[in-house]
Amino acid sequence: MHAWPASEVPALPGKGRDLRIHDTATGGRITLDPGPVARIYVCGITPYDATHMGHAATYNAFDLVQRVWLDTKRQVHYVQNVTDVDDPLLERAVRDGQDWTELAERETALFREDMTALRMLPPKHYIGAVEAIPGIVPLVERLRDAGAAYELDGDVYFSVETDPHFGGVSHLDAEAMRLLSAERGGDPERPGKKNPLDPMLWMAAREGEPSWDGASLGPGRPGWHIECVAIALDHLGMGFDVQGGGSDLAFPHHEMGASHAQVLTGEYPFAQAYVHAGMVALDGEKMSKSRGNLVFVSKLRRDGVDPAAIRLALLSHHYRSDWEWTDQVLADAVERLARWRSAVSRPDGLPADALVEEVREALADDLDAPAALAAVDRWAERQNAEGGTDEGAPGLVSRTVDALLGVAL
Hints:
alpha/beta; four-stranded antiparallel sheet; 409 residues; Rossmann fold; Four Helix Bundle (Hemerythrin (Met), subunit A); 14 strands
């Protein structure tokens, strides 16, 4: 599966700072110290109802991570999946009377278009669940043969009790885990499971549903968590720098994935940091496919909204915060974009070297994009009011905003 084209990232003078970021697993801020190649895995979409503002906010956060790393003169090895076969996708296809593969392909294509318009840097590897199945099956067989998985009516489940570190990502108690498991795709009430929290690794073929050759597992399709584990281990290996996604993925998805990988390899941890973006609401409710209260990037673009303004609307909220999308949020972003473009349109301006460092410091401090925006606001306000004589300043500000914030002025 191919990703989307990359926009050019301007090189800035000097060098950026190492990223200090909130790690869900430790509950505090840590300083990431990748090698020459920083490694990040971000969980991708299940391709229906793409791309809503919750998606965009999440991928914007991890785009900032990439940009901070690139500014430190590192390379970035970014991997993202597409869950192009799963119960919600199949249910939507049945509801709408569509072929599930056509639905997945159409929504994935739309997601690519939106990511391109928003200037999100693409992953080096963009992998669909279906194409990953040949690599998933041997992992499930290994877990089963090692006694870390068991069969139940043809389905194969992972035994969470085989990982001594289980619970170390989300730090939830058993009852909270059980409730979230039921809410987020698990089946804790199924009779016969060793532990209600045990997640499915391989679902035996069901009538009327797609299935694939599972070798000794029999025909079926993979569970959700093992999909990401197989892709991450194949392309990044254990101990990569950041596992990312929305805050609703901390449990069960990232918790289970970590346990799968740690039992498979005997190594710990699966990722050095677990980083989670907040949720976006609309009309007081979390924006979600099940509620249908979605604001789509593609709809805004069709209505003539500049993608740069959409991106500024996302950047105006700290990535870890839960916030609400409103018409005013977008209007403020449109106004800010106009002010910035006016400021950099002059042939000369106020010195901007200090601004570059302010933006760098803000983003290195747990991706504090609102602080970065405030720094540019201050420069733009003075520039529009007073102007200056530095001929290189407007261009430097434009390159800084593009390179570090992904906004083209």
